[in-house]
C-alpha cells in the first residue's frame, strides 16, 4: 500500500525515531509499504518518519553510478549505526521527497560503513561508496530529525524536477 509522504513543516520530520524491537507482521507491512511508496514517488530512498512512523528503518533502491544497465539493488536497514565514514567528502545536489521543489548542495563523506539489521532482524553490515553512500547518509539523517537543508551549502528551487529524490 502506498502511504502518504509527509512534507515539511510536519513535526514528525524533526523527531528522533525509536529503535525497531519487533520484527513482526506489522513491521513487515511497514517495510513493504515503504518500498511501494518509494517506488511510486518515485524515489531512491525513504525513511520511516517520511511516512509518519517514528521507527528506525530506511529503504534504499539504487543501481550503479558507473553502469546504468546494472540492476537496482534494494536495501532495507533497521537500526542503522554508522561505523565509519571517509575523511574524503564530495559535494552533491540532493532533493528530498519531504521537501518538494527544493534541492541543495550537500557535502558528505564519499564512503561509509554501516551496520544494522535486515527486515527480519538479522545483523547486516554494508560498505558503501558514491551516490548510494549519500542516499544512506541522507536517510539515516531522517531518523535523527535532520533534513538535507540543515546541512546544505545552499538551496534553491530548480526549474527541472530532480531525478533522485530521497
Ligand atoms: Zn529526504
Ordered list of secondary-structure elements with their pairings:
Elements: H1 25-40, E1 45-47, E2 57-62, E3 73-85, E4 89-95, E5 103-109, E6 111-117, E7 123-129, H2 131-143, H3 148-151, E8 154-156
Antiparallel strand pairs: 1-2, 2-3, 3-6, 4-5, 5-8, 6-7
This protein binds zinc ion.
Residues 96-98, 138, 142, 166 line the site of zinc ion.
What's the mean pLDDT score? 95
State the helix count. Answer: 3
Topology, number of strands: 8
- Regions with pLDDT < 50 over 5+ consecutive residues? none
Proportion of residues in helical segments = 10-25%
**SSE string:** HEEEEEEEHHE
Percentage beta strand: 25-35%
Ligands present: zinc ion
The main pleated sheet reads as:
5 strands, antiparallel
Descriptive overview:
This protein has 166 residues and is α+β, with helices and mostly antiparallel strands. It has helices spanning 25-40, 131-143, 148-151, and strands at residues 45-47, 57-62, 73-85, 89-95, 103-109, 111-117, 123-129, 154-156. The strands form two sheets. The chain has a five-stranded antiparallel sheet, sandwiched between helices. It has a three-stranded antiparallel sheet with strand order 4-5-8. Strand 4 and strand 5 form a beta hairpin. The protein is globular, with a radius of gyration of 15 Å. The mean pLDDT is 95. The structure holds zinc ion. Zinc ion binds at residues 96-98, 138, 142, 166.
Amino acid at each position: 500500500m502506498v502511504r502518504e509522504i509527509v512534507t515539511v513543516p510536519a513535526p514528525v520530520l524533526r523527531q528522533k525515531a525509536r529503535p525497531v524491537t519487533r520484527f513482526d507482521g506489522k513491521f513487515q507491512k511497514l517495510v513493504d509499504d515503504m518500498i511501494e511508496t518509494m517506488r511510486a514517488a518515485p524515489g531512491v530512498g525513504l525513511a520511516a518518519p517520511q511516512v509518519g512512523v517514528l521507527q528506525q528503518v530506511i529503504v534504499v533502491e539504487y543501481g550503479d553510478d558507473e553502469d546504468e544497465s546494472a540492476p537496482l539493488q534494494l536495501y532495507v536497514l533497521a537500526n542503522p549505526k554508522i561505523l565509519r565514514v571517509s575523511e574524503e567528502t564530495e559535494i552533491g545536489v540532493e532533493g528530498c521527497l519531504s521537501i518538494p521543489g527544493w534541492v541543495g548542495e550537500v557535502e558528505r563523506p564519499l564512503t561509509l560503513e554501516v551496520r544494522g539489521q535486515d527486515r527480519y532482524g538479522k545483523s547486516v553490515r554494508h560498505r558503501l561508496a558514491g551516490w548510494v553512500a549519500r542516499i544512506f547518509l541522507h536517510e539515516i539523517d531522517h531518523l535523527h530529525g535532520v533534513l538535507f537543508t540543515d546541512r546544505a551549502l545552499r538551496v534553491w528551487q530548480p526549474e527541472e524536477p530532480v531525478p533522485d529524490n530521497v
